[in-house]
Amino acid sequence: MAAQREWLDRDFYADLGVSSDATAEQIKKAYRKLARELHPDANPGDTAAEERFKRVSEAHSVLADDGKRKEYDEMRTLMASGRYRADGGPTGGFGGAGGFDIGDLFGAGAGGADASDLFGGLFGGRSRKTPSAPRQRRGNDLETETTLAFRDAVQGTTVQLRVTSPSPCTNCHGSGAKPGTSPRTCVNCNGSGFVSRNQGHFGFSEPCSDCQGTGTKIDDPCPDCSGSGITVRPRTINVRVPQGVEDGQRIRLAGQGEAGRRGAPSGDLYVTVHVTADKVFTRSGNDLKVELPVAFSELVLGATVSVPTLDGSVGVKIPAGTSDGRTLRLKGRGVPKRAGGAGDLLVTVKVAVPSKLDDAAVAAMKSYAEAERASGFDPRDGWAR
Description:
Zn(2+) 1 binds at residues 169, 172, 222, 225. One of its GO terms (cellular component) is cytoplasm. This protein has 385 residues and is of the alpha+beta class. It has three domains: 1-106, DnaJ domain (Helix Hairpins, Orthogonal Bundle), CATH 1.10.287; 107-277, Sandwich (HSP40/DNAj peptide-binding domain), CATH 2.60.260.20; 282-374, Urease metallochaperone UreE, N-terminal domain (HSP40/DNAj peptide-binding domain, Sandwich). Helix content is 25%, strand content 24%. Strands 10-11-15-14 form a four-stranded mixed β-sheet. A three-stranded mixed β-sheet has the order 1-9-8. A two-stranded antiparallel ribbon has the order 2-7. The model is unreliable at 1-7 and 83-131 (pLDDT under 50).
């Protein structure tokens, strides 16, 4: 019950330093700021910062999930109205919030106990759920970031991430028991994690106080993790970034988040990818764009010029009489698609005007200008009318 009250008493908004009406983006920014400040790598040996880091991560895992946040807000409203106490018990009535199940918020309560079992039955009746094997609460999800060069993001790459987080203890492999020993079934609850008691006409089922609702007891705890099955340690993760990832995109790594207690499933790790700008290419969906500097004579007379692509340079034919600013399309030379194929490369020609010409070039330009006028060409014909 103590652990259940601890969950219900938590103010996740206060943990992140945001208001209860904060937007998803405000919650995300607050979490990232606190995670950087409190990260164990930035505070070596500071147990207070480590504990605060865990609380912040836990708060974010609830408030960043729309479904969990909605149920959490509903729970806070019920508690504020006095319809439920902080210890998870009803203050009156027979249905609470029309079937609202606090246990659904976290999947399981203290030590895996479902909060619906805490309320029990009335007048000697059975609880709403028959106690069964205790459910283990998975570890929290974690977030981190990485920055990629533009071409690595487009073509795909593998990066190494250094993460410091609660991880399965390497000494006991997450069991919590000293190597060579094993957790034993709790005799008080026969491994169910629950005990029943009667109080007058009321029957209650609550987490076993001997095993804290886990269903097992550890007589000889692992010295490295003190029986929790978890230690905070740095680890290196190889992350395969798929081709075509965009700036700001998140990659989910299942089971790479915070470890669950005593062998419970780990949470997930979400990696936000930041992509640096490229000096040659820009991107529009699956298409790449590039501006190609050309001489005026190449547009007038036509030419074949070399254009960079992701796989090297290719020759592009500029038709005679091409206008400045025209875009030429090279099929299949853009961003690779996950389903196969690739986008296009869009080449926009831009006239490069020389800042200085020698005497011969100047004389040639003057001759050209005279010939141009004689031919009747007027670049401003019909302009501004």
